[in-house]
């Protein structure tokens, strides 16, 4: 039987899949770091408005909680997202997604190291089956274009760093929520602001005019679709992600998040994009793994 955490994780994966397709349209207007700043600032404003409307006053009061959330935001969003974008540039999306599939297992290991929480063997089996299914589904059918050895090892290192940071961010968020009672919206806002401000500082150091463009969205067409992508993908998505971590084990939540690429492929299927037997087999295998997790 699914609980609140599992339902939130599945919803977050669905929202992320749809918003990813929208974000792709703005990649030629803003650099990855600029887009990170723009979506972070807009989503933070949306979260503040939502908290005012809901009267959400469940703010964390302990310094330990703030430390976990800020560290999770800097590591998971600032460093993790930057490493992910660097991996995409170096080795492409196919190789990057395959390496990113290690995030659920890394989350489970960090859960033991940082929080001392152990998952049952059946849950580990579900994580393993889901990870294999995702890898099979995203595995390219044709030989990938060759990559210079220097960029290849650099890209693999960035992808591994991204997976590790993503896992660390999840576990640190859980650590904050274990410390005291707080709303998932406040946790999401603190984590997002910590990551966004860190990236904004980096962009300002590199080129100040790029930061101004990211804040003002100068020269961006179809801003309404960017707002839609930010609303669902970052505002709603991160809120759901933190709600999932709050109500279930972060390794289980991260495993469910990892199925988002399969949902992107499903959307592509309805758009009559080519679908291979590996995608179908991998998707079914991943669903079987998630079913084991939910049954557990």
Q: Number of helical segments?
A: 12
Cα-based radius of gyration, to the nearest Å: 18 Å
Give the termini separation. Answer: 9 Å
Q: Estimate the global geometry from the Cα principal axes.
A: globular
Name the poorly predicted regions.
none
Tell me the number of strands: 0
**Helix and strand pattern:** HHHHHHHHHHHH
Mean pLDDT: 83
Largest beta-sheet characterization:
none
Could you say which structural class the secondary elements and strand pairing correspond to? mainly alpha
Topology summary:
Blueprint: H1 4-23, H2 32-54, H3 63-100, H4 103-115, H5 121-138, H6 149-179, H7 184-206, H8 208-216, H9 223-247, H10 250-257, H11 260-270, H12 277-295
Helix pairs in contact: 1-9, 1-10, 1-11, 2-7, 2-8, 2-9, 3-6, 3-7, 4-6, 4-10, 5-10, 5-12, 7-8, 7-9
